Amino acid sequence: MELEKAIGITLRLGVALSIILIFIGIFLTFVSGNLENLSESNSSASSLAQIVFGLFQLDGISFIFMGLIVLIATPITRVLLSIFGFLFERNWIYVAITLIVFINLMVAIFVIPGLIIK
Amino acid sequence: MVLILIVYFALLLIIGIVAGLVGSLSGLGGGVVVVPALTILLGVPIEYAAGASLISTIATSSGAASRYIKDGLSNIKIGMSLEIATTLGAIAGSLIAAYIYSIGLFQIIFIIFGIALLTSLIPTFIEYKKRRRSRMNIDWTTKTFQLGGRYYDKARKRMIRYSGFRWWFGEAVMSVAGITSGLLGIGSGVLKVIAMDWGMKLPMKVTTSTSNFMIGVTAAAGGAVYWALGYIQPFLLAPVVIGVLAGSYYGATVLNNIRGTRIREFFLTILAIAGIEMILRGLGVA
For a Cys-Cys bond, which of B88, B136, B244, B282 suits B111, CB 3.0-4.6 Å? Predict the structure, then answer.
């Protein structure tokens, strides 16, 4: 039951944080007046380092990217929390199942991009 | 230039709101509206439309899931055990999409999307009949994977205990649901319902909320691959995600009472037209 509460809070916090970041991003984008090439920027061109760097420069698009990263990370955090929850319950088969799901997600994030030829 | 961008931005926001509304009222999720609306109405390339739809799906799933968990309706264990198949499927599906796009066969995605949209409408037109559930829905997977639980039924005012079986059937259908999700950028809620309700004989309420709960993790796997492929456009996504969240929240809370009325039928008709339009676009007719 405690695990379910923690998961519920994580999901709500994740979505809220993501919306705040996206709103800041939209605001900064319109305020900066730097609206050229907006519709051409996409995710393959920006690395995480560039996005974090962009946050410090108050770059609107970087804030939107960060909001989207938080959004994608929210369900992944939920899976990670579940691993600890099942460990705590000593439910070994579900520790294994949840680990497999988590590994699948890590493969999608870190392994697959390296295999894609651009 | 600035004015055009503001108008474009407002249009995207409205599309997002409508998609969220229709998605939550029809029970099909926002994705089936976002993709046709962006491609047909605004001429957005389909890979970017699919990317926008997939990420909005994560937002609505996470938003709704926290509510379902509070009600005790979604079964975290059953959801997790099936996510093995949906995440692998989503990775495969998004790679298949990347391959199809790389050889320039965009029309195929339009046609598959249209077919998926039309078939997902079929169960919503057939009245869901309450059938007697056999009490014998137990096999070895019920015990091994702990496919059971209980929830409080508000209408009947009592605790309902349930159990499911045929885990392998669920897992097989879920891998198809994952592939569809990655290929088209949608939640594939209908296939998830087929797997859990028809296949594993879980109660409908548990099925729909667990399916919603699962969609976020499935879409996160597909979304990560889409990210690497460059299908995520920040300026397109910002208004769409916010719109879809606002629309589905409004649809789920304020408009919850108008389910099963003419408004719902009107939305379903619009979706059917969108499905046909997608197929025609793919065939090069429209």
Answer: B282
* Encoded amino acid at B128, one letter: Y
- Concatenating the DSSP letter of every residue in chain B gives -HHHHHHHHHHHHHHHHHHHHHHHHHTS-THHHHHHIIIIIH---HHHHHHHHHHHHHHHHHHHHHHHHHHT-S-HHHHHHHHHHHHHHHHHHHHHHHHHHHTT-HHHHHHHHHHHHHHHHHHHHS-----PPPTT---HHHHHTT-EEEEEETTTTEEEEEE---HHHHHHHHHHHHHHHHHHSS--HHHHHIIIIIIS---HHHHHHHHHHHHHHHHHHHHHHHHHHT---HHHHHHHHHHHHHHHHHHHHTTGGGTTSHHHHHHHHHHHHHHHHHHHHHHT--
ipTM over 0.90: yes
Domain boundary assignment for chain A: 2-33+45-115
pLDDT category, B234, cuts 50, 70, 90? very high
Residues of A in contact with B241 (CB under 8 A): 18, 22, 68, 71
Q: Would an 8 Å CB–CB cutoff place B228 in contact with chain A?
A: yes
Q: What is the pLDDT of residues B252-281, one digit of tens each?
A: 776 555 555 667 777 788 889 989 999 999
The shortest CB-CB distance from B55 to any of A3, A4, A71 is to A71
- How far A48 CA lies from chain B's nearest CA (Å)? 11
Binary contact (B242, A97; C-beta < 8 A) = no
A93 contacts on B by Cβ (under 8 Å): 144-146
Q: What is the DSSP letter of A40?
A: G
CA B61/CA B39 separation, integer angstroms? 23
B191 or B183, which is more confident:
B183
**pLDDT per position as a tens digit, B5-60:** 889 999 999 999 998 888 777 767 777 889 999 999 999 999 999 999 999 999 88
Chain A residue with minimum CA distance to B94: A108
Cβ separation of B228 and A7 shorter than 8 Å? no
Listed residue (A81, A87, A27) closest to A58, CA to CA: A27
Torsional class of B178: left (φ above 0), alpha (ψ -120 to 50), beta (otherwise): alpha
